[in-house]
Write a structure and sequence with these properties.
mainly alpha; 23% helix; 0% strand
């Protein structure tokens, strides 16, 4: 279901917001693809005008830079809730 929902440009972790963020819970806040699109989610599996899907681009990148299973993630990869999160549109990947 999450794959059909897609991605959103909304920040997930924003510790400085003063108002509640709109909930986007799978199976609760929307059920259909059109409902998710009305909540500003976009497809990660569809292609547009000769632009590969976001998922295809991510899989290609993963093959170019494979991660060794059970190996510590490199310190050059920033993890945690204070990093700048990104989920680009397919055409900006």
């Amino acid at each position: 279901m999450g794959l059909l929902r897609g991605a959103s440009q909304d920040e997930v972790y924003d510790g400085v917001r003063t108002e509640p963020q709109r909930a986007t819970r799978l199976g609760i806040d929307a059920d259909t693809v059109s409902e998710w699109r009305s909540l500003d989610f976009y497809s990660v599996i569809e292609t547009n005008e000769n632009v590969p899907s976001l998922m295809a681009n991510m899989l290609k990148l993963a093959k170019q830079y494979p991660h060794v299973a059970h190996e510590k993630v490199s310190d050059s990869i920033r993890l945690g809730t204070k990093r700048q999160n990104q989920c680009p549109l397919p055409e900006k990947f």
